């Protein structure tokens, strides 16, 4: 609430409010006055004034006035003292134990699967975090709004109903009694104040007069002609719609119309025009007219008098005032509730609260919200009053639901949505059923709202239904579900009667559904329109759990069960009348006859909706389970029972399914196929398909078996098919028959074999679930979510999976991608039944295939006989008789005979398989019975029947003989093992029969029989083992051959396999090359006189486009590598820096040491001819132009394309320039060494540079300042001295290479600076050097974070990319004017040369030294340029140039490290007194002098040395990479491994540095002294040393994605506390977390859009521009998804790195399981970033996932 926060009494007095109101307060305090009258007078006086400016309200002002004029005096009167102090006291004295937090839409709610009574019991995030459930199996969900936190409700939780915050005694109050009672005076005042306040609120809210006010409120004012035209919210008109209508009707601006519309949507209504009555009335008509034009309905507009409007507004304000008050004291709540519930004596009128409820649907949105909140904070916080409220609610239930159904607001805004808060409370539900007959009331409500869907037969028919209306009806069905959620433990007679009454009423609904939406087979023509089927199926789905719950409730009590069975039976019978008019016909087969009324599914109407029959089947198995079935005859007489009639309708339904499978219903269209699908689908099958099978089992158990089978044959319309063979040539018809026979056999298998239903056999629910899971896992290993989806959920949305899964399966963890799966335990495989009734056709064949394959691998036979089924319960034991009855024998024999006689068209393999399965079932049954009881008691004589010769000629052979013959049928080769198994079974049963008849004691014979089995089993086992061993050896051999082949293949297709090899981690290719070359012990030093030779092989590459090979040479046509150049912020530590979006004025020569934004060049490593690539690129361009409408994945304008081989996103190519082999003659080198000291080298360079500047300055202003210490130079030096140490001619590149050099350099310039391409720009060389340096730094960084050695561990693509990049960077110089290069070089040297400093030379602390090194080395050869000849330094010259340049930058870098770590204070003491520490110490002493004491002399030497040694590493590693790729000198072995100490030494040796780095200063002391002085005197350096500014520390911190919490709910917690920085409304936000910097953004919302370069960008897109130079990675917290974006147009989604305990991600938090951070996956994301592969990932995802094209990434 807006008030209360800072209202100290002092502030109020100062504001002058209290004194002004003093008289009024005094008056109110008078005990004798009439409060009501005074109160109303006060309102009448103030309210219209306060709320006078409705069109443009000053909300804060209004609030202030309300406080001063009304609320403050009111509170003073109520409390009798200062309100703030009083409320403070109340607050202190403890609050309610109920949390009662009301959820807004989108807020995360938590439920505990272990402790919640039902899934509607939820906690708010605060309570959850402080509860015991945090460590239970919880679920997270997004609230739809309107619910409230159940913390503290003892009925909602089996354990831990209170969080630690709401636990009594947890509050700050020391008092034991958590509720402080108000004193009697305040109670008395409340009793006086509340009625008036409530009455006022009620009166005003339900006030219907538009112009007049109640008498009491009008007295003080003259009526003025001031009105508002008020527009109301509805759900029919869209936003744009309303805006349009308003603009048209009122002639207002778009902005104003938008403002109105937003307010209407939020609050429910808004005054859109003020004025006289007539003008408002006119506006009203205009709005209605305009809105009607666009949609059928006009907008809801009213004209209200200003005073009415003001009072209504204030009534709501009073409502929230009460709401606040309620939270302070239980006494307030109770008084409030009492008054709300008080009925006027002798009046029929509803009480206040009921009045409001009944008016709810007519209130606008804002009013409803206030009202509902008030109910939550009062009634729902007091159990006793919640009950009384519920009673009122039920009293008006019908009226309320009807209002809701015709209302046009969302359900969350309806008072009916409160039902869940009451109906799910067990004691309340029970009370409401017992005392208020709520089940009957709900069902009757349904019966009253559904009749519009009834047809002439009084059945439902949803054709042409309105989806919206039906959805509203569902809410009544939900209520039924809520009320049934908790089954009562104790039953009273009263409860029983009420429940039964409700059940009977419910049966009336089912009666309207039984047989609804009948269909008739379409013959000839296809149906014209597919009928609506969704509604009926949807209702079935909604009802599924309600039906189950009713059955469970009925089964609580034997009496109840029998009585409800009788009622249900009656209802079924009433519905089973049709067809009675027809004459019965007679059907004969095998000497049995069936009399029945003719009916054909293929010709007569049929319906799949039979909820009554199925409920009866459900009750029947419960009768069997509880044993109550023995008393059934007392309730339903055998004559009434009529089992044939009960079976009839479910049987028809199954036949329909069979006929659809046989394609007989093709012409009825898709709707039928969908219905049949859902009939058997997990969402419906429990109360459809499964129950129909049960009904057939009931039939089979109660009917004569032969009669039963005859009925089946007749309904399947197969009577003729088993009588005689009708010769027909109609292939379709034959096929149809075959499918029907298969379908029927399958149903027979199910009727006999499917016994996993409690009541049908003695199994538990757990057994049933285990069996379902086993059969799912027999198909393939599955993820947890996939199993869950395939199991039916109970009323609490639980499948029971967790309780049993570990018994049947083992969990296999996922890798870095993919998900975890469950694998079936071996011991469960024996449970596999290939004809499992919940298998779909595809699942059936997949499972069969998997299981056969497995058995084959284990060298076992492929027979898949049925597992021994559990015994039927007594009530169903007769079912097995259908196996050995005459008709069954006839069916089996007929089909086998057809197979044996090879009448191919009359049988199928599937058919035979099913026959064999039935035989197996029969044999198993007989075997089981024989093993259990003495032979003579076993009447089940399957063996006897199957081996008996038939009497007629047709039956000349018996079943056993036929089975034996099957072995010879070639088409049945696959069934051979099964046939053998059956023959063995025959044998075994025969022996069991014989033995028990011979031996007198059954038991011994049994054990002998098994012993016999065992010995043969042993033999078989040994044989199998031998076979298995042989097979294993064979497999091994094959594998060896395979991998040899594979290796060959890889070698010949190396290119293709590069990526796969990389994935294996080790890059053999490079290792091999380098190790062969190292056989001879070359010098492994890269710089200086001892420089080793370049190691180069002839490079022959294959173009991926034309597949031709070519050697890389200077003079040949260019080969190129596909490449992608991008800006990158991957190395910066400072993400808040504002990046220049365009580089028009940027000078990129010097890189800031923080590396804020570099240019990265990456490659996928694929090589093409430059010419081939150009052709390819042109072809894409052409192709694109021809298909303009296709949205582009890549930006052709900017040179983007996908690599033709690997589809990586590229935007340029790198030319491959060969490395020029260089070798030093050691004698030359030694000679040079004598003369060329650093000092000398510096002089020569200085002379050369000044020479140039003199030369070039002719006629123009001298561009260089004079060198400072010319005097020291020897006069012998002149302009050409530099050439005397050796020169050579420059390399001659082919024109095609040159062209590519220019093209690539221009791309780097264009992308890196975000400017238009310009080949002549002077910054092109700078960008070339910069990307070279930056890319090396990125790679070094990556190798370090991945813990890989510096050399030999790069991925192939990185290796070839880097090689090409460095060589390109060296060659690029030749395509630029040398003068330009020189100019850049001179600026660079300004940092390093002791005797020269340019105007713009940055301070030592403002440059990255590695960038300087790379640029200086690459540009240095330009100093050798002569007008006439194209020269470059010889190997020896280069070696010295490199050495000195490197040493100078190293000195500078050491200085950077020393200065930046000078402020570091030692954290530990060390007695290190090594040579290095001493050198460091003495060096520091020297430096100290130059810094005028700023540099502390006291820093211990060892600390300085430590800092330098650690800090310089990345630089040295980068330098080693750079020189290696530039010169091709092999690195020392140590760098091919990871080792701290060895690495440093090896680097120093490779780079020609002393390991005691301070030695360098010592060596060059005289030369570098002035340089040191200059560096130290720099103001930036001094300010840093003084601690005034902070310099970059070395080593730089390595970037990581931000740290994420282990538990995802922590993130949700953060998100729930997130407030949009720009708007304050309570609207739902989409908080998004930047994984680079941790910023939380408000995404996909207009409030946080940003205008960048004239374009509206969403918060993420604009953040990405700064944070990641356009590329960024976000976590959408509420959706649990990672978003990768690039620029404004591209992005993709990626699963968040959080997994549930089953190793699965949960995008969208759909499943809601607890999620935990998976470090490996997060690391993968980190690498994606650091490897600069985000763009690549996006492109790849967009290629495969076309759906994201429609998404507007710009506004993210
Ligand atoms: Zn809570
Ligand atoms: Zn709590
Ligand atoms: Zn729990
Ligand atoms: Zn080619
Ligand atoms: Zn590629
Ligand atoms: Zn960021
Ligand atoms: Zn925002």
Please tell me about this protein's structure.
It contains 63 helices and 27 strands. The chain is α+β, with helices and mostly antiparallel strands and 1756 residues long. The strands form 11 sheets. A 5-stranded antiparallel beta sheet has the order 20-19-23-24-25. A 3-stranded antiparallel beta sheet has the order 4-3-5. A hairpin with an 8-residue loop joins strand 8 and strand 9. The N terminus is likely disordered. The chain binds zinc ion (7 copies). The site of one zinc ion has 7 residues, from strand 13.
In terms of topology, how is this protein built?
Blueprint: H1 9-15, H2 17-29, H3 35-50, H4 59-79, H5 83-92, E1 108-112, H6 125-129, E2 138-142, H7 184-205, H8 215-218, E3 227-232, H9 239-250, H10 254-267, E4 269-275, H11 277-294, E5 301-305, H12 306-326, H13 330-341, H14 352-359, H15 365-377, H16 383-395, H17 397-406, H18 419-423, H19 426-436, H20 438-449, H21 467-484, H22 493-513, H23 534-554, H24 558-575, E6 585-589, E7 592-596, H25 611-626, H26 632-635, H27 638-641, H28 643-661, H29 670-680, H30 689-702, H31 705-715, H32 731-753, H33 765-779, H34 784-789, H35 801-808, E8 809-812, E9 821-824, H36 841-857, H37 886-900, H38 909-932, H39 942-947, H40 959-966, H41 976-998, H42 1002-1052, H43 1054-1063, H44 1068-1077, E10 1100-1102, E11 1109-1111, E12 1119-1128, E13 1158-1169, H45 1170-1186, E14 1201-1202, E15 1209-1210, E16 1212-1215, H46 1226-1235, H47 1238-1256, E17 1287-1289, H48 1295-1313, H49 1324-1345, H50 1356-1372, H51 1378-1392, H52 1409-1419, E18 1431-1433, H53 1435-1460, H54 1475-1490, H55 1501-1527, H56 1540-1550, H57 1558-1563, H58 1565-1577, H59 1579-1585, H60 1608-1617, E19 1630-1634, E20 1640-1643, ...
Antiparallel strand pairs: 1-2, 3-4, 3-5, 6-7, 8-9, 10-11, 12-13, 12-16, 14-15, 17-18, 19-20, 19-23, 21-22, 23-24, 24-25, 26-27
Bound molecules: zinc ion (7 copies).
